[in-house]
């Protein structure tokens, strides 16, 4: 008899699960799927319904507080990010100004380099002209009588005489120096030896 009573109890419990609980769970799952298909936010509806149940409402409120705290933390992070962003933007602006200054310095230096190159080319051309002019004058002195050339050169300062004599042939230079005054000739000889 005890066996029959326990079998009756277990069969009533099985009947309760098979006839009531499982169909309710099945209907709930089907309902959630259908509502999701129609773009109904089932989670929010569930939270609203759970907040009306006395014991479960405290858990739902805790989740809402946690969500509110998370949003507050995100807002603080956004404000910190905005401060950082503003600081970085000012830093970028400062660096861009420095780049502009450096670019202008580079342009100025390139212009100065160009000017110096042009001056250098002009000086080279002038030196070539002077050198060719001195060679022509040296030829003129070489073709003159040594005494006449010595008289003309004696009227110049020693540096100028040296420039003219450097372009002359050594034999003609010796003849002209022999016609000059001794002091001038010795100063020129020592300068030519260096």
UniProtKB/TrEMBL annotation:
Chain ranges of the Magnesium transporter MgtE intracellular domain: 136-192
Keywords assigned by UniProt, alphabetized: Membrane, Transmembrane, Transmembrane helix
Segments passing through the bilayer: 15-38
UniProt cross-references to SUPFAM superfamilies, sorted A to Z: MgtE N-terminal domain-like
Acidic residues bias (residue ranges): 60-86
InterPro entries: Mg_transptr_MgtE_intracell_dom, MgtE_N_sf
Keyword Hydrolase: no
Region described as Disordered: spans on this chain: 60-101
Keyword Lipid metabolism annotated: no
Pfam annotation, one family: MgtE_N
Name recorded for this polypeptide: MgtE protein
